[in-house]
């Protein structure tokens, strides 16, 4: 029970990595507030966690709604110790912005969802953390947070998230607050459909998965639950000296 008595907010926690992280924090004793856009997903998560878990339906593309989970945690528990900014992905029509078919609106939404939303939520949480002299902010990045490999906007946003992490760590370091970036690699969630991924290259789903795992030192795709242990470390007292760091939990992707 490394997090007993702590209060955590996990955004984008309706499924996949966000849900796994919320369950990991709750499993170590934290009271958890989870958010996403889908109420039915959140109901499943809070039922699985049990205890005093709370759910907030919020669209992270909206500046005010992005801050709602933090407000809910402070209202329910009077404090906030841990913030996991997990919201991210590709909103809209599934078409990536690129230099040949530039789509301004999609580019802006990708930056907002994957970068600005993390700032909005963190900005809402920092005053309460500073007041108590304790805070843990964990930004969920990506394998492309320090290299290319995805759409321009998504890659730029995740690079930006690393810069935000380091800048915040420097600015908050004397207030008992740590800020780190946890970067998953290929992780098996409902968002990954190997048949769809393979179809883009004219190959089968099995071949697509084989191509991916060939770039991973451990030759496997991770389970979302494997990220939980690192999140618990960064969120706990044991992680007090770790700040401004980028943690890749990816089985050794493209070493």
From TrEMBL:
What Gene Ontology terms describe what this protein does at the molecular function level?
oxidoreductase activity
Q: Name one Pfam family in it.
A: adh_short_C2
The protein's superkingdom reads Bacteria
- Is Oxidoreductase there in the keyword field? yes
Keywords for this entry? Oxidoreductase
Q: Does the keyword Oxidoreductase feature in the UniProt annotation?
A: yes
InterPro entries assigned to the protein according to its UniProt record, in alphabetical order: NAD(P)-bd_dom_sf, SDR, SDR_fam
Q: Which family does it belong to?
A: Belongs to the short-chain dehydrogenases/reductases (SDR) family.
Which PANTHER family does UniProt cross-reference here?
A: 3-OXOACYL-(ACYL-CARRIER-PROTEIN) REDUCTASE, 3-OXOACYL-[ACYL-CARRIER-PROTEIN] REDUCTASE FABG
State the protein's name.
NAD(P)-dependent dehydrogenase (Short-subunit alcohol dehydrogenase family)
Show the taxonomic lineage: Bacteria, Bacillati, Actinomycetota, Actinomycetes, Micromonosporales
